């Protein structure tokens, strides 16, 4: 059995976001699959064209999911099929959410859904370095305290395991209608984003 002490230390640092990700969904219910798929395809093209007109580059657009399924209906009801296409937009214009949203709503009206809005940090490498240093220092302080309580002195580090995470700011999915489009001048102000590193460190006895 290894001798020594294992502890967990955590470090958290904050950074200013520089990326906005918006996930739009286009949905349609129709009596048959072909009609649902065709309508969603046409309306997705309309949304993409509207976003491109707002200055979104092709490289900033991407499909995140496509679904087609039969909806549950009460026995005796006519069959219905739902098709959906989810489009992810990534931009560095953190203030452009309202304009993008209004353009998409104007393009397809009630067929549009907003699945999420998220601010993020593109390069977290320096934040991870800082969080890692804080985590290790906390682990070492804990280990030294425990060693002192047990009547030992700390020796060398024999093992380290790392986990890290990031909690971006997001908004939940919701349905939208043309009559309830957001003001294009809406002011979205993201909070600082947190980067957290957790280290499990094993110290041998001196």
UniProtKB/TrEMBL annotation:
<dbReference type="InterPro" id="IPR007497">
    <property type="entry name" value="SIMPL/DUF541"/>
</dbReference>
<dbReference type="InterPro" id="IPR052022">
    <property type="entry name" value="26kDa_periplasmic_antigen"/>
</dbReference>
<protein>
    <recommendedName>
        <fullName>DUF541 domain-containing protein</fullName>
    </recommendedName>
</protein>
<dbReference type="Pfam" id="PF04402">
    <property type="entry name" value="SIMPL"/>
</dbReference>
């Amino acid at each position: 059995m290894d001798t020594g002490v294992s502890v967990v230390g955590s470090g958290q640092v904050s950074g200013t976001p520089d990326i906005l990700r918006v996930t739009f969904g286009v949905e349609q219910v129709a009596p048959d699959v072909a009609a649902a798929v065709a309508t969603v395809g046409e309306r997705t093209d309309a949304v993409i064209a509207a976003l491109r007109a707002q200055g979104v580059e092709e490289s900033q657009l991407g499909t995140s999911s496509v679904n087609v399924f039969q909806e549950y209906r009460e026995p005796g009801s006519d069959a219905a099929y739902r098709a959906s296409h989810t489009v992810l937009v990534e931009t560095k214009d953190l203030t452009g959410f309202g304009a993008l949203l209004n353009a998409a709503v104007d393009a397809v009206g009630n067929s549009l859904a907003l699945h999420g809005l998220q601010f993020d940090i593109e390069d977290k490498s320096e934040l991870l370095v800082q969080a890692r240093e804080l985590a290790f220092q906390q682990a070492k302080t804990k280990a030294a305290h425990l060693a002192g309580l047990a009547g030992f002195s700390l020796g060398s580090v024999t093992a380290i395991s790392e986990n890290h995470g990031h909690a971006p700011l997001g908004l939940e999915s919701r349905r939208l209608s043309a009559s309830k489009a957001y003001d294009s001048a809406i002011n979205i102000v993201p909070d600082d984003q947190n980067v957290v590193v957790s280290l499990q460190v094993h110290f041998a006895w001196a």
